[in-house]
Design goal:
By secondary structure, the protein is of the alpha/beta class. Helices cover about 50% and strands about 10% of the residues. Strands 2-1-3-4-5-6 form a 6-stranded parallel β-sheet, sandwiched between helices. Helix 10 packs across helix 11. The chain is globular and about 55 Å long.
């Protein structure tokens, strides 16, 4: 890790950087990662706040996640590139779905990295590679692309996992765990109104009449892992 940080110093030393993510804890982790490497001029949790920060500062590097409190990572990158054509962008993918990766590539990102690789040098490795031409992806993202491209194309409706947004998937997982809207909001560090909107949206997309039916659909279509079965010994009466 120390060697990667040393190699990355020339890449980041003179690049003013803005960070954008819905996860404030994640922003803190990124801040510590970049500490002592390059100048951080701002952090934001929404698309509009990030764009305002980019406009107010002479920024050369944008590091964002695909999920924001409002807006999205791909939309942010596309808008930022339109305003600042020379801006370099790295997106950290929180859950590497092909639809998210395709959107990130289409937005103009020079680098894609799985969020899981934040602590093992993956982010800094991709940042170092971004100094050359082309799009650079870490092995996790590359593997998702390769596996997805190999799947046969079948006629029929799109997979439900492709219909739901990443935020809606997060909220759906909370519903499957029996959490209230407030509990989901607390865990995702989002406003309660954002969660309510996501619940309404995912119910419509799943064609579910209520939260209970949405949970059943989620398990039926493998959108979430089913709960573990109760061990057999729990069913026995101790004598």
């Amino acid at each position: 890790m120390r060697e990667i940080r040393t190699r990355s110093l020339p890449v980041l030393r003179d690049r003013r950087t803005v960070i954008a993510s819905a996860d404030r804890v994640f922003i803190t982790a990124l801040t510590h990662l970049f500490e002592g490497i390059g100048p951080l001029v701002g952090a934001a949790t929404s698309e509009q706040d990030a764009l305002n920060c980019l406009t107010a500062n002479d920024v050369q590097l944008l590091v964002c996640t695909d999920l924001l409190e409002s807006g999205s990572g791909p939309a942010l990158v596309a808008a930022a590139k339109a305003q600042h054509p020379k801006l370099r962008c790295l997106m950290l993918i929180q859950r590497p779905l092909l639809s998210t990766i395709d959107a990130a590539i289409a937005s103009g990102c020079e680098g894609l990295c799985s969020r899981e690789r934040l602590g093992d040098g993956g982010v800094l490795s991709v940042l170092q590679a971004m100094d050359s031409d082309g799009i650079h992806m870490d092995p996790t993202i590359t593997g998702v692309c390769q596996q997805s491209r190999r799947r046969p194309i079948l006629d029929g409706p799109p997979l439900l996992s492709d219909v739901l947004s990443l935020r809606e998937e997060d909220v759906l997982r909370g519903l499957c765990r029996g959490l209230s809207n407030q509990e989901i909001a607390d865990q995702l560090h989002l406003a309660i109104d954002t969660i309510k909107h996501a619940v309404t949206s995912l119910l419509r997309k799943l064609e579910a009449r209520d939260r209970t039916q949405a949970v059943l659909i989620a398990f039926q279509h493998n959108l979430v892992d089913p709960p573990a079965p109760i061990p057999r010994w729990h069913h026995k009466t101790h004598r």
